[in-house]
Amino acid sequence: MLTRRHFVITTAALFSAPIANSAMAAASSDRSKWDAWDAQVTPPNYDPATSNPWGFHRRFLPQIVEANYGLTPGDIHVDAVARYLYHIRTDGTAMRYGVAIARGNLYEPGTYLIQRKAKWPIWTPTASMIERDPELYQQHADGMDAGPTNPLGSRAFYLFVGNRDTYLRIHGTPSPSSIGGRASSGCVRMVMAHINGLFEQVTSGSTAFLYPPEDGVTAQS
After folding, report:
1. Residue-wise burial string across 15-52, b where 16 or more C-beta atoms lie within 10 A, e elsewhere
2. Adjacency order of strands within the sheet including 155-161
3. Structurally, how many domains does the chain consist of?
4. In angstroms, rounded to a whole number, what is the distance separating the alpha carbons of residues 140 and 160?
5. CA–CA distance, 196 with 106 (Å, rounded to integer)
6. Are 75 and 89 in contact (CB under 8 A)?
7. pLDDT tens for residues 186-211?
8. CA angle 35, 184, 114 (to 5 degrees)
């Protein structure tokens, strides 16, 4: 005769496997593939100043420009009008990159701290993104593995206000044709080959200034 104890043991056996499988299904970033992915998103014979297989306007290629006086070396400034990101250097210059910003009213100007940086990050859409565009994002509610097709691309800077994660990022994009436009759900996008070069130059704790689209440029060539 089946006892209550038998039922409990049998039920535990039946339901323990799916819990374990669910944990194994969490999004991940396979470090063994990072070098191969970097090579995949870097054009052959890559020269940051001239390589442009993406076909956007050449003004969005990385360039050294003169920085405005008084800007702090190491900080990042995003000019939403011209679609430029500037990384301020110690010699009074800045490295300028083309970017894409968020579409519509999703762009959030402000002053942020870069509290974390990551290579080949995983990506999880926010609850508001899923609510806004469920057909696009619901399938990734539990996260998406890192890789060249991941929306965060090859590198990401995580923007905080104090200790609060804003869920805004400056990140690489698998859609380089969007550079110069308004395309994202809140983040600042860069070409993956470009942000790979910038990544090691930016330290955690640096400040990122995201200016409103009505503001002027933050550096001049």
Report:
1. eeeeeeeeeeeeeebeeeeeeebbeebeeeeeebeebe
2. 188-191, 164-173, 155-161, 110-119, 207-210, 76-79, 84-88, 93-98, 63-67, 219-220
3. 1
4. 23
5. 25
6. no
7. 799 999 999 999 999 999 999 999 99
8. 60
Evaluate whether residue 17 is within a structural domain.
no
Under a CB-based contact definition with an 8 Å cutoff, are residues 121 and 104 in contact?
A: no
Whether 23 maps to a domain, the answer reads no
Residue-wise pLDDT for 98-121, tens only, equals 999 988 788 899 999 999 999 999
Reported pTM: 0.81
- Six-digit token pair at 107? 């762009």
110-119 and 155-161 beta bridge pairing: antiparallel
Question: Which tens digit of pLDDT belongs to each residue from 122-164?
Answer: 987 767 766 766 666 565 556 788 999 999 999 999 999 999 9
Mean pLDDT of the chain: 84
* The predicted structure's pLDDT at residue 74: 97
Q: Dig out the tokens for 218 from the structure.
A: 């933050």
Specify if 22 maps to a domain: no
For the domain that residue 101 is a member of, what is the CATH number? 2.40.440.10
Q: What angle do CA 109, 111, 113 make, to 5 degrees?
A: 130
Q: β-pairing, 84-88 with 93-98?
A: antiparallel
